[in-house]
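does this look right to u?? FE2/S2 (inorganic) cluster version
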Amino acid sequence: MNLTICIGSSCHLKGSKKVAQLFEQLIDEKNLRDKVNFYATFCMGNCQNGISVSIDDQVYSVTPETAQQFFEKEVLSRVEE
Ligand code: FES
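got this back:
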């Protein structure tokens, strides 16, 4: 699975760095290095909706507060399939 986070300026201001660190930490904790390819990218054209994150081609919006829940719901559920 490809997990991508936007580090463009709008998402950066909303806290994408914090979310990226959390995702890194969760990927390590759950031993997902071989299952999840984690990338950072610049503006995904979805600035108004908050921190943009994509899983493969699907774009989602998260905040630093919802990032962990997002990871558990969207990422873990897929890798466990
Ligand atoms: S800066 Fe992240 S979607 Fe535009």
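The beta strands are 2-6, 37-41, 51-55, 58-62. idk if thats expected tbh
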